[in-house]
Design a protein that fits this description.
single chain, alpha+beta, Outer Surface Protein A, domain 3, three-stranded antiparallel sheet, 22% helix, 36% strand
């Protein structure tokens, strides 16, 4: 049996979970999330925890069991604490700025790149413009926006210039060996 799927999801006191068939709605202090989950998986709220179970040991049911539990756990965490991805910029003269709710990146192009956040996502740029964070209650959306921002100028292996996740190790290459002789 799935070890992840078998674990109960604790519900904090400030969070409310409602299950209507295969639709789960989670309300908390930071907002509300709703999601349609796979049909054969059973979801039950018992006291202050959510239990996820599967009808059989069929391969499809096993694969959906842990996934469903992880999605619900991320919803509960998102509405209670939220999710944040921190990112950094490496490069001479490269920086990020916050203009209203938008993120403006100056990363070596002839023009600044402006990124407009979807509803529920906020950008926060730290002093100096070299480090910024992407925050929201939906883990999947925060990760997708972070990937889009990184895609503007991914880190290159020779000098390490680019936009990277905080803590990401960039694999470096040696470059040319030079002329010998």
């Amino acid at each position: 049996m799935s070890r992840i799927g078998r674990a109960p999801i604790p519900i904090p006191a400030s969070v409310r979970v409602a299950v209507d068939g295969n639709r789960v709605t989670v309300k908390g202090p930071k907002g509300e999330l709703a999601r349609d989950l796979p049909q054969p998986i059973r979801i039950a709220v018992e006291g202050d925890q959510v239990l996820v179970s599967r009808p059989s040991d069929h391969r499809t049911h096993r694969s959906l069991h842990g996934l469903t539990r992880a999605l619900i756990a991320n919803m509960v965490t998102g509405v209670s604490a939220g999710f944040t991805k921190r990112m950094g910029i490496e490069g001479v003269g490269w920086r990020a700025e916050a203009q209203g709710s938008n993120l403006v990146l100056m990363v070596g192009f002839s023009h600044p790149v402006e990124i407009t956040p979807p509803p529920g996502i906020t950008f926060e740029v730290e002093k100096g413009g070299r480090v910024f964070s992407i925050s929201g209650i939906d883990n999947e959306l925060v990760g997708e926006i972070a990937a889009r921002v990184r895609r503007v100028r991914p880190p290159e292996p020779y000098k390490g210039k680019g936009i990277h996740y905080e803590g990401e190790s960039i694999r470096r290459k040696a470059g040319k060996a030079g002329k010998v002789g």
